[in-house]
Every structure is written in C-alpha cells, then in structure tokens.
Design goal:
Elements: H1 16-26, E1 31-33, H2 38-44, E2 57-59, E3 69-70, H3 71-75, E4 92-98, E5 106-111, H4 112-122, E6 134-137, H5 144-157, E7 160-163, H6 169-178, E8 183-186, H7 188-195, E9 210-213, H8 220-229, E10 234-240, E11 247-250, E12 265-266, E13 271-275, E14 290-295, E15 302-303, H9 307-313, E16 314-315, E17 319-328, E18 334-339, E19 344-346, E20 349-351, H10 353-360, E21 366-376, E22 381-390, H11 395-409, E23 420-422, H12 436-445
Parallel strand pairs: 1-2, 2-3, 6-7, 6-8, 8-9, 9-10, 22-23
Antiparallel strand pairs: 4-5, 5-15, 10-11, 11-12, 13-14, 14-17, 16-17, 17-18, 19-20, 21-22
The structure holds ligand 4UV.
Length: about 450
C-alpha cells in the first residue's frame, strides 16, 4: 500500500473459478501467495485472462520446491521502517469484493483517504487502539472488517494484532490468554460457540476489555449472556459495509440500558439520511424507518470498472445507499430493522443470491433457481437456502446431487446450508425478476427442506 499499489485480497477458501474471477476482474498483475495456496492458483491458471510469468508471483514464506521469489527476497531479511510518499491519497488502496445492494460481487475502490479517515474516526471511545493493546483478528483480511479494523487500524496506532487463520474455539481462547488480548473482533456466531464451550472457564480471559461485534446483527440476548460470562468486558456492536471502509455506526461510547438492540451512533464525519420508499425523508421523531443513505470521507470511490453500478449506489450529492432499513431515535441511536438489498450474510461472509442462482442453473438438472437467506437463531447466522425447479425423476436424489455439487463449485459460505426446497415454479415479476421477497416470506414458514 505504501508503495502505491492497489491490493485486492482474495478469500483463502475460494475455489479456482472464484479466484480466477477476482484475478481477472481486478486486473491484478502481481500475485502474492502462501505456498499452501500454490495448488489452488495452478488450478485457476487455465481460467486466467493473462499469464503470470514466475517473476509476477511472490510467496509469503519460503518454499524450497517452487521457482518463485519470496517476499523476503524482495524486502531483504530485515524489514525496516521506510517512508514512502508515492501513494496519492485519492488512489485506490484496497479492492475488496462486495455485491452491494444487487447483482454480482464487484470490486469496491477504497482509497487511502477513505482508510485513514476511517481509522481516525474509529479510533475513539471503546474501540480506541493504542500501544500496549493487543487486538485479536481471526476475521479474514479478504473482508474489509479484517483488513481495516483487524490489520490497518492496530498497525497505525502501534497496537499489536494477533493473527489466527480462522476462528477455532480452543486456539482463540489460548491466544486471548497468551497474548493478553484487550480487544476482540467478533461476528455474532462466535458468541454462541463460546457461550456453549466447555473450555471457556479453563482460560484466563481477564485481559479482555472490549469485544466488537460486526458484519451481522447481534441480538440483545446474546449481548447480555456474553457480558454475564465475561463481566469485565464490554461488548460493542458495530455496523457498516465494505463500501464505507467499513464502520458507519457503533457503540463507541458504550451501551445504555434499553439500547442493546441498537448499532450505536454515527461515527464522526458521517452524515445520514433515512429515505422512505416514496423518496421522502423519514420522520425519525415519529419512529419512521427508512433506507439509510450516508455520506462522508469513508464512502468508497465507486465500483471498479462499473460506472452503472456506482451510479445506482451513490445518489447525487454523494449519498451512498446502504440497502439497510433503519430507525434513529432522538439521541441518534440507529437500529437496523430490515435489509432491503438482496445480500445474504453467512457468518459475516457475503453471499450474493444472483451469483448463486447463476451457478445453480449451470447444473444440468436445475431448471430454475431462487436463493434467499434464512435466519438460524441456534448459530446466530443466516443460512443459504435454494428454491429450485428440478428436472429428473427422483427429485430428492437430484436435490442431494445439487447440494454436493455446490460444495465443489463454491466457497463454504455459499454452500446450501439452509437446504433446498423444490418448487414447480420460481415466483417472478412480469418482467422476469425473481421475487425474492416472496421466497423470504415463504422461508419463514417452510418446514419442507
Ligand atoms: O459489506 P459487508 O460484508 O460489510 C460488513 C462490515 C462489517 C463491519 C465490521 C466491523 C465494523 O466496525 C463495521 O463497521 C462493519 O459486514 O456487509 C454489509 C452489510 O452487512 C450487514 C448490513 O446489511 C450491511 O449493509 N451488517 C453489517 N453489520 C451489521 C449488519 C450489524 N451490526 N447489524 C446488522 N447488520
């Protein structure tokens, strides 16, 4: 980043096709890889638009059997502090992928200015990081939460960041004890796993001062239950999106009783509007809800190579449409009450229904598909459910084949964890648009998966 390049972080759990899509779409010209991902990259190669000569591939650690350079060959054995002044504040620093309010995942152009603004705005209250703090980040760096809050904010403030490749119960508890973690970055399902864990009591978690929960709604019940488990630790809920670098609002000044359902107040620098279906601003004093539109220095530059999607998302005046329906009380506390956009959140990961439907109809026995999220309170996450019109005789067997086929084609978040429901037809509008709202309503009552 300091050298002025744009980084596009890819999910380590991607399939070759998913990785190839991001490499091609982002126009990446250099690939940084852990040696454990060389095999994945080799499988993606036939799908790539450009060929990568060996000098365009850099390994992140030594691997004696491969011809590629490592990052240490480039930086030297001892990494020293250097000042770079090549990066222009408005240049794209980070290109994460997000489906936004509709359609397929798109590259979100996050500038250096967006990130430094986010770090300054976010480094307040209980989310503040300073030297001596240790932040636990198992949230992937391919997601803006991991990238900005888990990596760049602690580094910029002189705090330590402790990196784990994924969330696993015991390694996480061990890391909290060993590294005296002060700030944990969680997503809602993690609270449930730890609440049910027999191991929690075996570790010293007394260093924890704050845990941030983001990327999906955290219920007041979970918040209270976890506070009872680790009483000295404050749970603060944060809300935001890839397109806003990410944090828009959080409980940076703590929670007040009766406001546990809220995602807190706007971060400094953000302005907000609540816009109703008819385009008018909602009257917050009457408790009216509206789609949250925000503007400010953390709002992305736009979608990479996609001016049409950018124009649909950023309204005149610089207002970014979040796709979330919220209310705001007289003290400015915001509550997310609905999601207007198509997006499904599986354990904080994005799943774009349009991408899943496009994939599913490639299966020979899938005649039509509609995909929605269904909430599972036991895991505190949405699951991915497919409504399918199927060919073939034995529909049950075909459905099983489709489910296992998807596990080969897509990263784990996109597997059909919410099951398959077979329909005679997918509900559509006269213009052919899938009526996902009807499917979501149906999902609330369905027991037939
Ligand atoms: O684009 P994205 O995948 O972005 C995120 C951002 C997560 C974070 C994490 C730490 C923060 O401090 C922060 O501010 C944000 O997940 O998905 C964006 C959508 O996820 C839903 C909402 O629909 C967003 O538009 N979402 C994110 N956080 C919450 C949430 C939340 N706390 N409550 C309800 N929905």
């Amino acid at each position: 980043m300091a050298a002025g390049v744009t980084l596009s972080p890819a999910n380590a759990g991607y399939t070759p096709a998913e990785l190839a899509h991001q490499v091609n779409d982002s126009g990446a010209s250099l690939i940084f890889l852990a040696p454990s991902h060389l095999a994945l990259f080799d499988k993606a190669r036939p799908l790539l638009k450009r060929s990568f000569s060996p000098d365009r591939i850099v390994l992140l650690s030594e691997n004696p059997t491969s011809p590629y350079k490592t990052i240490y060959d480039i930086l030297g054995p001892k990494i020293t502090t250097q000042h770079f002044d090549r990066a222009d504040a408005g240049a794209t620093a980070w290109l994460c992928y997000s489906s936004g309010t509709t359609g397929l995942p798109k590259g979100v152009m996050t500038s250096h200015f967006n990130i430094t603004s986010q770090i300054q705005a976010g480094n307040v209250g209980f989310q503040r990081m300073r030297p001596g703090d240790a932040v636990l980040a198992f949230i992937p760096y391919s997601h803006i939460y991991g990238a900005v809050i888990g990596l760049l904010q602690p580094i910029s403030q002189g705090a330590a960041t402790v990196v784990l490749p994924r969330f696993d119960e015991v390694p996480v508890l061990k890391a909290i004890e060993k590294f005296k973690i002060t700030l944990g970055l969680f997503v809602p399902p993690v609270f449930i796993v730890l609440l049910n864990s027999p191991h929690v009591k075996k570790y010293d978690l007394s260093s924890l001062k704050t845990i941030m929960s983001g990327a999906a709604p955290l219920s007041a019940e979970l918040l209270h239950a976890f506070t009872a488990l680790i009483p000295q630790c404050r749970i603060i809920q944060a809300y935001g999106m890839t397109e806003t670098s990410p944090n828009i609002a959080n409980m940076h000044r703590g929670i007040s009783v009766g406001r546990e359902y809220s995602v807190g107040r706007l971060l400094p620098g953000f302005q907000a509007r609540l816009v109703k279906e008819d385009g008018e601003d909602a009257d917050s004093s009457k408790g009216e809800a509206g789609e949250l539109w925000v503007r400010g220095p953390c709002v992305m530059k736009g979608y990479h190579n996609n001016p049409a999607a950018t124009n649909d998302t950023i309204a005149p005046g610089g207002w970014l449409k979040t796709g979330d329906v919220v209310t705001r009380d007289a003290d400015g506390w915001i509550s997310v009450v609905d999601r207007k956009k198509e997006l499904i959140k599986y354990k904080g990961f994005q799943v774009a229904p349009a991408e899943m439907e496009g994939l599913l109809i490639q299966h020979q026995d899938v005649l039509d598909a509609g995909v929605v999220g269904v909430y599972d309170p036991k895991q505190a996450t949405e699951l991915v459910r497919a409504y399918l019109v199927l060919g073939g005789e034995d529909k049950e067997k075909v459905a099983q084949d489709v489910a296992s086929w998807v596990t080969q084609q897509a990263a784990k978040a996109k597997h059909l964890s919410g099951g398959i429901v077979v329909l005679d037809a997918i509900p559509k509008s006269p213009s052919g648009k899938i009526l996902r709202k009807l499917l979501r309503e149906r999902a609330k009552n369905d027991t037939d998966t």
